[in-house]
TrEMBL record:
The protein's name in its UniProt record: DNA-3-methyladenine glycosylase II
Segment forming the signal sequence: none
Taxonomic lineage from the root: Bacteria, Pseudomonadati, Pseudomonadota, Alphaproteobacteria, Hyphomicrobiales
EC number(s) from the headed UniProt entry: 3.2.2.21
InterPro entries according to UniProt: Alkylbase_DNA_Glycosylase/TA, DNA_glycosylase, HhH-GPD_domain
Keyword Transit peptide belongs to the record: no
A Pfam family assignment: HhH-GPD
Annotated GO biological process: base-excision repair, AP site formation; DNA alkylation repair
Gene Ontology cellular component terms for the protein in this record: cytoplasm; protein-DNA complex
Species, as recorded: Nitratireductor aquibiodomus RA22
Length: 204
């Protein structure tokens, strides 16, 4: 399956989405050009995503900056050698401390490889990632999007995206928690182009 590696890949996927569902043209027009957002696969990238769970981007950036100020380079071995104290000092919640440590142990002690994981089928990769304590579907999906350029992944459980999808597609007027039901049906239609909705829908 072709990975999303260039701006041209994004453009091609956006054109495919609009061809499948014309309602997305308004979203695309509103969002404008969607830049390619990629980060190198590996421990530091996944830790960054873990830190961004359920907090604002500004808060996550501040916590990450403090953590890197205490542990640099940010590697699994360095995390395990340092223990909990730098994680506490950086402002990680107890749950995120446990997740980061569990991920570091999986890599160092069990040979878990985040780079080769990116080459696997999305379902298999998500299953492997979510087997690690504290890593849920959203974290796994976002990692595969930004670090692997995986074309067949969309974080449909994201609350902001739920609201944006409901608004963009005009599918729901009820409580927000029902919005998570919208994307599975549309995602199956969009197939390997669904990743391209992540940028324009959230921008809208």
């Amino acid at each position: 399956m072709k990975r999303i590696d260039t701006d041209a890949d994004i453009l091609q996927a956006l054109e495919a989405l609009v061809a499948i569902d014309a309602r997305l043209q308004a979203v695309r027009d509103c969002a404008g050009d969607i830049p390619l957002r990629r980060s190198a696969p590996g421990f530091a990238s996944l830790v960054s995503i873990i830190l961004s769970q359920q907090v604002s981007r500004a808060s996550a950036n501040a916590i990450e900056a403090r953590l890197i100020g205490l542990i640099n380079p940010l590697t699994p071995d360095a995390i395990l050698a340092a223990g909990e104290q730098p994680l506490i000092a950086a402002g990680l919640s107890r749950a995120k401390q446990r997740t980061v440590l569990a991920l570091a142990r999986a890599i160092v002690e069990d040979g878990f490889n985040l780079e080769t994981l990116c080459a696997r089928d999305a379902g298999e990769a998500i299953t492997s990632l979510t087997a690690i304590h504290g890593i849920g579907p959203w974290t796994a999906q976002v990692y595969l999007l930004v670090s692997a350029g995986h074309p067949d992944v969309f974080p449909s459980g994201d609350v902001a995206l739920q609201a944006a999808v409901a608004d963009a597609l005009g599918c729901l007027s009820g409580p927000m928690q029902r919005a998570s039901r919208v994307w599975p049906n549309h995602g199956r239609r969009f197939g390997p182009s669904q990743h391209a909705c992540f940028g324009p829908i959230i921008v809208r």
